[in-house]
Amino acid sequence: MAKIKAIRGMNDILPDATPVWQYLENTVQQLLSGYGYSEVRMPIVEQTDLFKRSIGEVTDIVEKEMYTFEDRNGESLTLRPEGTASCVRAAEEHGLLFNQTQRFWYQGPMFRYEKPQKGRYRQFHQIGVETFGMASADVDAELILLSARLWQRLGIRDAVTLQLNSLGSNEARAEYRQALVDYLTLHKDQLDEDSLRRLDSNPLRILDSKDPQTQTVLESAPLLSDYLDQESAEHFAELRRILDDAGVKYELNPRLVRGLDYYCKTVFEWVTDKLGAQGTVCAGGRYDGLVKQLGGRPTPAVGFAMGVERLVLLLETLEAIPADLRQPFDIYLAAEHKGIQHRLMLLAEQLRDQLPGLRVRVHCAGLKNIASKARQTGAPLVLLMKTDEAGELVGTLWHNDQPQFDLGEAQLVSAIESVWTR
């Protein structure tokens, strides 16, 4: 019988990789807590209309990439392809938005059907941050400052670059959209197939085209910045002023539009050149119209999402991972002969009680070559126990592969505490 394998593009995260994920997730959680953000957890399955109404029916995500199915009641359901719409739905459904300000974050798997490649999978994981009820540029800046601080803590600040743009109001963007369509229509014979398809449905996405000939055409295309309304221009100027004062460097990218229909005003991406084609590690922007679009009252909002797989890959590529991260325990506890295993288990529990935080692994296999096997685990501390002539437990404590103490049971806790690096 053939073995069952994981679905293509949906990967197992094995024990040698999970410590890096935990390190990233814990660093993010501590940082967001320090900024006063609260975690929200949403289901991974939502009504399909949620994403059609928020992302836009003529986007690649809705047209090509969503995992959509009918349940037994004939209702169309979709595995969430992104988190913002779900967060808006949850906050609106539970009355958390009207006349309130909120700062939320979430993490978890998202699903898109696309060709799997390094850093891009069909089940991928995101950490998202969303804020509601604040229309001014200072909260836009807070999100960017927050993410810049995260890169600093992770030791990857020099490997990422901030790109910044403003899409303006919906009215200004509609005016620019028409100007762009008029220009591109004159050059239809030079556009790639995807761009031709988007010309009527989602022309701003053509600005993201990777086709060299299309990019050549775009060099002379109208710029969105020339169509900004006064309010959006002032909002963008204030954002830049805060970032400049904070010393956050950025590049203005007039072609940056993001791939979802709901964005307005500020959009930004943190990109790296260390991962090849999949260079965006964090992206977001303002989406003031989305809450109303999904049935709520008009509510200003801004947020971002970061791809966990890509950030893990970047940490590994830059070797920015703490040296001892993959060591899952502090001390390895083993018996040198038969008959004392039950006492060893009780000793391990005693150590956990008296030294909270000490990670203890007990050897539960055979006793052949036990001393060398215990030291080969790579644990910084190894405790090998036996009994003396009087039947009392005694042991040798090894620290970094060097014997430190020969001691009795009563001395164990203080001896371990003296060499344990917390």
Describe the protein.
The protein is an alpha+beta fold. The protein contains 14 helices and 16 strands. The strands form 3 sheets. An 8-stranded mixed sheet has the order 1-5-6-11-10-9-7-8. A 5-stranded mixed sheet has the order 13-12-14-15-16, with helices on both faces. A 3-stranded antiparallel sheet has the order 2-4-3. Strand 12 (331-335), helix 12 and strand 13 (360-362) form a beta-alpha-beta unit. Helix 1 (18-34) runs antiparallel to helix 5. The longest helix is centred in the middle third of the chain and has 18 residues, at 137-154. The chain is elongated, with a radius of gyration of 28 Å. The relative contact order is 0.12.
| Element-level helix/strand string | HEEHHEEHEEHEHHHHEEEHEHEHEHEEEH
**Helix count, per DSSP?**
14
Q: Into which percent range does the helicity of residues fall?
A: 25-40%
**Beta-strand percentage range:** 15-25%
Q: Mean pLDDT, as a whole number?
A: 90
The quaternary structure here is single chain
Question: What's the main sheet like?
Answer: 8 strands, mixed
Poorly predicted runs of 5 or more residues: none
What structural class results from the helix and strand content?
A: alpha+beta
Strand order of the largest sheet: 1-5-6-11-10-9-7-8
